[in-house]
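task queued by scheduler; priority normal; single chain, no ligands, no partner chains; default sampling; output format set to structure tokens
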Amino acid sequence: MHFDCVRKRDSFCIKACRHLCSKVIGVKYFNIKGVYAKDDIKSPRDAQGHGSHTVSTIAGNLVKSASLLGFASGTARGGVPSARLAIYKTCWKKGCLDCDVLAAFDESIADGVDIISVSAGPPSSQDLYQYFQTSYNIGSFHAMKRGILTSNSAGNSGPGFSSMLNYPPRILSVAAGTISRKFLTKVQLGNGMVFEGVSINTFDLKNKMFPMVYAGDVPNTAGGYNSSTCSWDACWSPCCKRSAMELCPTRSIP
């Protein structure tokens, strides 16, 4: 199914066109089975933010004085702010069908795009060995035959090491980067010792002291947890979340 922001004048599109159509020049969605979950939006609209996030990374305009809760203030921008976007929605609450993904590849090629950016991939790297069976392999091959570059996310893991999930021979696999700065937070203990670590902390404790407990000693037993290592917020004891600072063993930066 198709939805063109210039021709289809529903109430959402009229409002969106005033701000977006200089950047987003076309939007289409694909769902061959016509099966939708409760939270799905039956249009090219972004239901949970993933599409908005990825397209702003690709071609977001310059935004001055951007920051993360006051940290890293500066000008944010996408990779190519001058680019125009044609959006092809293929994924829904229950996943992405190969037939929809391949249809979107072929539709974008027929529309004459210059570059195809795909922020999705197969559930495991094993699928990519099937060079002539999966939608990502076949679609990128079709694009390559027309001289169109396909840029694909290398995977969806981090910040630690992991294996690539997207590496067909006809695509450019890209990984996320980060800034060279670290956001440091200091914790002062009752004995005056100060520890410095990497964290994003915007809370003002107003010089009030809180007890420090080891997360493994305060599991949420009422919730059915026998231990807590800070992997999930639900496994912490509710009383400690409100009145104590928890020490969490972890191998990665939260």
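post-processing summary
- The helical segments are 11-20, 50-59, 98-111, 135-145, 238-243.
- The chain is about 20% helix and 25% strand.
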